[in-house]
From TrEMBL:
Organism ancestry: Eukaryota, Metazoa, Chordata, Craniata, Vertebrata
Native source species: Myripristis murdjan
Bilayer topology: Multi-pass membrane protein
Entry protein name: LHFPL tetraspan subfamily member 2a
Gene3D superfamilies in the cross-refs: 1.20.140.150
Transmembrane domains' residue ranges: 12-31, 93-117, 129-151, 180-200
Short name of one Pfam family: L_HMGIC_fpl
């Protein structure tokens, strides 16, 4: 018989797990990892067909994508991948970053999916599903840390220097500033470890004596604070 067990701690863990997974996924796909120095397009088409100087803007560069403003585009900034193939990513360090981040995000998404069903299933192969998910989140957190540590090592690549100036070097961003995606990835990594630790509390909450008493009373829906 399936017992639906809902507690504040288990629901909070589920919610935080989903937030961590989506935060890391959105950050990875974003182009706002580095914000380049202000620049002006060479020319843009004026209202009467003549070319005029464009307004200054700051291009952004992600792990595999970028946002730039082209003079001949009236719609504004063009965003998209600059790397069509994996080998075209700006540097070997960013390729390694992509692998580690993708592995971590894959684990986080798997945990987020499983966490939705923990209300009904609390064990898998006689192992606590919360403990298994907590372990996976800890491993994912390590992958994310490795990816974020390697990411600044790629700042010396030719691609980054186009956006950040010739002073850009490994672990030195030159004229660039960090975009929101980098900080989101860092926040998601911290939240991942919080979830890994908090999974133990979710396990305790769903296996408490009060829960067992309500199961013995024949209740199929158990809601506890």
């Amino acid at each position: 018989m399936c017992h639906v067990i809902v507690t504040c701690r288990s629901m909070l863990w589920t919610l935080l797990s989903i937030v961590a997974a989506f935060g890391e996924l959105i950050a990875f796909m974003s182009t706002d990892w580095l914000v380049g120095f202000p620049r002006t397009p060479d020319a843009v088409f004026g209202p009467h067909g003549a070319t005029t100087a464009g307004e200054a803007y700051r291009p952004t560069l992600g792990i595999y994508g970028r946002c730039i403003k082209l003079p001949h585009l009236r719609r504004g900034i063009l965003c998209g991948p600059y790397a069509v193939h994996f080998g075209e990513i700006a540097s070997g360090f960013w390729q390694a970053t992509s692998i580690f981040l993708a592995a971590g995000i894959l684990l986080l998404c798997a945990v987020a999916f499983i966490s939705v069903f923990t209300m009904c299933f609390q064990s898998i192969m006689k192992k606590s599903i919360f403990n298994v998910c907590g372990l996976l989140q800890g491993i994912a957190g390590l992958f994310l840390i490795l990816g974020l540590m390697l990411y600044p090592a790629g700042w010396g690549s030719d691609k980054v220097q186009l956006y950040c100036g010739p002073d850009a070097a490994p672990y030195r961003a030159g004229l660039c500033s960090m975009g929101w995606a980098f900080y989101t990835a860092m926040g998601g990594t911290v939240l991942t470890f919080i979830c890994a630790i908090f999974s133990a509390q979710a396990e305790i909450a769903t296996s408490s004596d009060k829960v067992q008493e309500e199961i013995e009373e024949g209740k199929s829906l158990i809601c506890l604070l």
